TrEMBL record:
Record protein name field: CoA binding domain protein
Highest taxon, organism lineage: Bacteria
All copies of domain CoA-binding, residue ranges: 20-114
Gene3D superfamilies: NAD(P)-binding Rossmann-like Domain
InterPro entries: CoA-bd (IPR003781), NAD(P)-bd_dom_sf (IPR036291)
Amino acid sequence: MEGPRQYPLSMSPPELRAFLQSARTVAVLGAHPNPLKPAHYVPSYLKEKGYELLPVNPAYAGRVLWGRKVVGRLDELEKPVDILNIFRRSEALLGHLEEVLRLRPGLVWLQSGIENPAFARRLEQAGIPVVQDRCLMVVHRQLLG
């Protein structure tokens, strides 16, 4: 039987629950318009739960998702971000590192199947906690019902 999910050492499950309750803005790197893709239905769930979504994907820049215009880069976001929810291949993450460091989100969340220890280590060294290889929708349901 599998044990409990592990979260960043800097954030226990009760701390993560409190953070998710207080967070308001979620940037979605790799946002997708196809409702069958996790990069669409996970953010749609978060929108239903009251989060403001900021979609980021150069392939869909200018389109509207979740009532917001999609931007091509994280640097184009014009407001602070509580959670950066990432739907990108693990090997692509280091290419976003400098933008993420400039953005300074309260938490970086790498969706299921996405992990990059070097990327996570650099962010955590900068004081940005990271959750890797977990579905934000599933964890949100577990912690907040």
